[in-house]
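Agenda item 2: adenosine-5'-triphosphate complex prediction
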Amino acid sequence: MSHAIELKDLRKDFRLSMRLGRRRALDGLSLSVRAGEIFGFLGPNGAGKTTSIKILVSLLRQDAGSATIFGAEPARGETRQKIGYLPESPTFYDQLTGREFLAFCGRLCGLRGTELRKRSDRLLEQVGLSHAAELQIRRYSKGMNQRVGIAQALLHDPQLVILDEPMSGLDPIGRAEVRDLILDLKRRGKTVFFSTHIIPDVEMICDRVGLINRGRMVAEGTVTELLDAGEARSIEVVVENVSGAFDSVLASEVSSVGAQKLYLVPSNEALGRFVSEVLQRRGKLVSVNPRREGLENLVVRLLEQDRAAA
Ligand SMILES: Nc1ncnc2c1ncn2[C@@H]1O[C@H](COP(=O)(O)OP(=O)(O)OP(=O)(O)O)[C@@H](O)[C@H]1O
Ligand SMILES: [Mg+2]
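Presented output:
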């Protein structure tokens, strides 16, 4: 299995001041991102997401542990060329127009002439900024600033795209556009690693998810794996016209409206037997819906558990 990103037992301490001493931002963080996948990096404010990302793009150096990108040191020249990076709350040379800024970034990574022009135009269009290409960045709104930052990260067509909260400040349409852009990168074989607080975005597009808290991983896996490992799922069953006094030991009645009754069945195994009971009593099955714990709930619950354990 080839890994685009591998972090092993990362530790990072920040020195605050003589009086306050040090703060541990990363405390044995390990995670891996496979080549070609979209990985969502979740965690509360101050959990250590930006710190991890800065180590990956070699803006920071860890105190212990290792970080590799496609098997190599992040600081190596060839590795850096493979990465596109959107910083958290990016600020740019704001006297430049969007187009000038992209031209500047493109020249830094060796793009020239029509190739550069073509790529900038395409990206400006993809991030919905064609209309503002000739406007100085200091006149951009927050979301427009974020969009030009995303364009900048993709300009040299990097293998690995690392985005620190790409959806922050974007309106719903902008968010959907960025999701499409990320999915398009995956279709083209790229790897995308992004941090976010927007859980529905993660559920919609991520192959795998990592949840970080207090500088260590709390959970990692596909959305389905995480949800399966979560609370036992129950199943909601609505039945109609069950004859006689029906009081199944297999399920609990939650509510009843007219001839319809809603039952909660605790497991798939009990479901089969419950359904036969209903049919034996000439009942009609109206609906069967697995009641899944959403990712949002799961994340909150895992973080509460982690806090309680601390
Ligand atoms: N330069 C710094 N000096 C001192 N402490 C820092 C520094 N950068 C980060 N920290 C601390 O490290 C911890 C992790 O911060 P980090 O920015 O990585 O969190 P985050 O997960 O990105 O949070 P957010 O969701 O708010 O962006 C926090 O406790 C923060 O105070
Ligand atoms: Mg951050």
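Discussion summary: The two ends are 34 Å apart (CA to CA).
Owner for follow-up: CH.
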